[in-house]
């Protein structure tokens, strides 16, 4: 094995072009597990820790440009206003030690269907900036996941940053596991209300071969909210609408039975999380005065 | 390959390091610092917790080459690290958090203790008066298979209270 230590992004791209089988390593929270357990013996290991811009982020007008190696702990501490869903998801990653090292770039590189950041990225709306010596591509995150632990990167490409839409409304994230810390998701759910476009986006994790958007559920809810004038009148979402949204989210799943949970359980749990997180975000939307009425009663999860 | 980095304030060098080797392996097997424990090798248990440029990390998940030129603090250097940080004239060989673990009876088999000490010390450094929820969160990546968590909580509360007392004495 050879250990590559590029000092700059340009050097990293050149090294990846020269050694397409090189495995990039940033926080190491996935890659080192595979090496420690002898599941992987790459010809080259490429340390990205010296590439400074990968650890930087920039808050723009519409989006946050998040360097691929920015650790989860920084997202939680610094970006929870702009990226509330991703910050919530980040908080459920591993433990403090893991959150100090792991990053969204790593989550995307590994492309595990159970990666915690995926539902939040899908719900917020994001593009992956992939670069090689040949040039730069912006890949919508929903097109980035191509299979179980497979992604859209070409072999000479590296993830430079993730461009994530800044929140224009409440966002939530929910995850099922056996305890609060150190848990791989049995299944996970992210939701983002987008009052500016009067749309809702929903991302599902660990309930299909890839993370995915619940598009039928999004379309149904968007139409129901529009038809009922809910964005303007801020009324409580009728239980029948929330229920239908939940069922459509369950229906979007294509899960398997495995050691962490059964397919039937995952489908059911995703529906429950969809209903609850919709309730939380909608209450939050009403509470911030975006909706006009103050009709009483908290939405029941 | 050769790797060079600072451990507990001293420059250490190791030769013939395999490129896929972890920082934990280098510390334990090549630098004679077996305080950081090797258990799960997948970041689940926290027994190998060290500070890397100040941040608590699992040493089993850091490639040795990634530590090149950086600062590592292990449990072996915790007392010295705490002494310099706190500017205290504490006597004895133990960091306050280590003494608190002894006094609270927070050590059973002792395997998880080094990782917990490093994590707990960092918590009190960052948050001198942690709530119980803060302590649980900070230690959520460290498993104790003797399940001695209540005494560990007591120990961290004790260490924080003592730090608070001595801070007031200085005032």
UniProtKB/TrEMBL annotation, chain A:
Presence of the UniProt keyword Glycosyltransferase in the record: no
**Gene3D superfamilies tied to this protein:** 3.30.465.10, CO dehydrogenase flavoprotein, C-terminal domain, Uridine Diphospho-n-acetylenolpyruvylglucosamine Reductase, domain 2
**In terms of domain of life, where is this protein from?**
Bacteria
Read off the PROSITE patterns from this record: FAD_PCMH
Answer yes or no on keyword Oxidoreductase. yes
- Record-annotated FAD-binding PCMH-type domain positions: 1-169
Q: Which SUPFAM superfamilies match?
A: CO dehydrogenase flavoprotein C-terminal domain-like, FAD-binding/transporter-associated domain-like
* Entry keywords, A to Z: FAD, Flavoprotein, Oxidoreductase
The family database entries (InterPro entries) matched by this protein are listed as: CO_DH_flav_C (IPR005107), CO_DH_flav_C_dom_sf (IPR036683), Diverse_Substr_Oxidored (IPR051312), FAD-bd_PCMH (IPR016166), FAD-bd_PCMH-like_sf (IPR036318), FAD-bd_PCMH_sub1 (IPR016167), FAD-bd_PCMH_sub2 (IPR016169), Mopterin_DH_FAD-bd (IPR002346)
Coiled coil, from the record:
none
The name under which this protein is listed is Xanthine dehydrogenase family protein subunit M
- Native source species: Streptomyces oryzae
From TrEMBL, chain B:
Q: Which UniProt keywords apply?
A: 2Fe-2S, Iron, Iron-sulfur, Metal-binding, Oxidoreductase
All residue ranges annotated as the 2Fe-2S ferredoxin-type domain in the record:
1-78
Is Iron included in the keywords of this UniProt record?
A: yes
| The keyword Phosphoprotein belongs to this UniProt entry's keyword annotation | no
> This protein's superkingdom?
Bacteria
What InterPro entries does the record point to?
A: 2Fe-2S-bd, 2Fe-2S-bd_dom_sf, 2Fe-2S_ferredoxin-like_sf, 2Fe-2S_ferredoxin-type, 2Fe2S_fd_BS, Beta-grasp_dom_sf, Diverse_Oxidoreductases
Quick one: signal sequence residues? none
Which SUPFAM superfamilies does this chain map to? 2Fe-2S ferredoxin-like, CO dehydrogenase ISP C-domain like
Q: Please report the name of this protein according to its UniProt entry.
A: (2Fe-2S)-binding protein
């Amino acid at each position: 094995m050879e250990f590559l230590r590029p000092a700059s992004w340009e050097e990293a791209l050149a090294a990846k072009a020269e050694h397409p089988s090189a495995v990039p390593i940033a926080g190491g929270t996935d890659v080192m597990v595979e090496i420690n357990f002898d599941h992987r013996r790459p010809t080259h290991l490429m340390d990205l820790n010296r590439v400074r811009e990968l650890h930087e982020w920039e808050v723009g007008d519409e989006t946050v440009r998040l360097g691929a190696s920015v650790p989860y702990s920084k997202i939680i501490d610094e970006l929870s206003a702009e990226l509330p869903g991703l910050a919530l998801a980040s908080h459920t990653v591993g433990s403090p030690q893991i959150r100090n090292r792991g990053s969204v770039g790593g989550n995307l590189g590994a492309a595990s269907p159970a990666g915690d950041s995926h539902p939040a990225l899908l719900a917020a709306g994001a593009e992956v900036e992939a670069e090689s010596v040949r040039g730069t591509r912006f890949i919508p995150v929903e097109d980035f996941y191509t299979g179980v632990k497979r992604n859209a990167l070409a072999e000479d490409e590296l993830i430079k940053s993730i461009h994530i839409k800044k929140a224009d409304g409440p966002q939530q994230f929910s995850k099922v596991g056996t305890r609060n810390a150190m848990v791989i998701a049995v299944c996970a759910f992210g939701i983002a209300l987008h009052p500016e476009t009067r749309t809702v986006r929903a991302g599902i994790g660990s309930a299909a071969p890839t993370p995915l958007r619940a598009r039928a559920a999004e379309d149904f809810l968007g139409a129901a909210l529009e038809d009922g004038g809910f964005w303007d009148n801020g009324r409580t979402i009728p239980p029948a609408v929330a229920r239908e949204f939940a069922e459509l989210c369950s229906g979007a799943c294509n899960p398997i039975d495995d050691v962490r949970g059964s397919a039937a359980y995952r489908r059911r749990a995703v529906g429950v999380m969809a209903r609850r997180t919709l309730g939380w975000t909608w209450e939050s939307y009403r509470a911030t005065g975006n909706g006009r009425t103050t009709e009483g009663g908290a939405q029941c999860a | 390959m050769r790797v060079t980095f600072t451990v507990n304030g001293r420059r250490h060098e190791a030769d013939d390091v395999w490129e896929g080797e972890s920082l934990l392996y280098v510390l334990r097997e090549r630098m004679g610092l077996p305080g950081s424990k090797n258990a799960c090798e997948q970041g689940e248990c926290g027994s190998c917790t060290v500070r890397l440029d100040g941040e608590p990390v699992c040493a089993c998940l850091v490639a040795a080459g990634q530590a090149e030129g950086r600062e590592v603090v292990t449990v072996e250097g915790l007392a010295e690290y705490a002494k310099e940080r706190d500017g205290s004239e504490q006597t004895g060989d133990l960091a306050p958090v280590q003494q608190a673990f002894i006094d609270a009876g927070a050590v059973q088999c002792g395997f998880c203790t080094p990782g917990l000490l490093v994590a707990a010390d960092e918590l009190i450094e960052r948050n001198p008066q942690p709530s119980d929820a803060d302590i649980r969160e900070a230690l959520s990546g460290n498993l104790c298979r003797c399940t001695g968590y209540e005494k560990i909580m007591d120990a961290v509360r004790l260490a924080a209270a003592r730090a608070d007392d001595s801070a007031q004495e200085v005032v």
